[in-house]
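Entry type: protein chain
Record version: 2
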Amino acid sequence: MNKAKKLAKNNGIAMESKKVSGGESFYFTKNKVLAMLGIAAVIILCAGVCYMQLRPRAVLKVTGPDQSGSDVTNTVYMKETVYDIFQVESQYNMYSSLYQQMYGKTYWEMEDVDGEGRSGASAAKKQVMDNVKQREILCMEAQKLGYSLTDEEKKAVADNVQTALKDLPEEQKKIDGLDEKSLTTVFEKSAMAEKYRQVIISEAGIDEEALKATVDRNEYHQYTMQYYKVSNKEGSGEEQTDVSEEQKQKNLASMQALKEKAATAEDFTKLVEEGDESGIGTYQEEKLLTKDMESSTFLTEKLRKKLIKMANDEISDVIEGEDGYYLVKMVNNDDPAGYDSQCESVVNEEKTKQFDARYDQIKTAYTTEIQSYWKGRVTVGSFTTAK
């Protein structure tokens, strides 16, 4: 009777006080199982969160024909874009102080930088993605045609990766995507894309000598000069004012002393020791082309025409310009560098033109789909560098 009451009270479950094997009670065993299940649930939850945070993020899918003509899709992940972002951010951050001075804002904050309404950050983001798209399409097209990197080219890639890693600031080395494995992937794709780019250019049949013949040697006659200058202005920008007459005389005396020193010096570029803050002029270079004789801002046209008559290694007297005193040395009054540079520029311009035309044809066989993570989560401007 008592036993029946106890069963009813406990929903039909008989309570026994005797120990189970191992000396644990039923309740203790039950609680232990629940605790283990709870721990397992926490582990699974943490693993899920970690996976969501660390899983590879697709940013681009490119679909195009393979060797058999069947469509294949390549997926580009976020890690493959980080070095591109780093390069773009480093490039524009170099001019950050200039933008701040001229416009009162950084390049990333500038509005309509491309004439299509994009801010600096948006334009840079598009620039990165355009490069990534082209790299992937060229790689896929090259592989379809049977091109691959040679062992020598792979070694060059490995060397370039090590150089890039060495040059990376310590903070950037911690960023996911700037590690050796990720850089190797990106550099190998870039090498393949460049290899195929050169194939396209070589197949264009460009007559380089004919292009060079279009460059006027007289217009690109270069006068290479070295000079020191001490400014007779103080302040900055539009607020510059003339220094006092007393300071101006001190500047003239300093430059005259420099002229005497230059007469016996073996190296004109080292007349002023590094770190010297005595006010003696700073060293600079001027590469003057004949075609720029009238438009150059270096001294006045009259003085420029006088300077180009100097012999090689000749050093001028101290010259008074509109903004300071100058001491000029003629390094080479017939420097071929100007003509050679223009020839190279003309040839490269034609190479780019021919490549762009061929690439426009190639990419019609490929479709690209930018992924949501890139559209909504990636902001260029402070992704790899501090704000």
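Comment: Residues 26-54 form the longest helix (29 residues).
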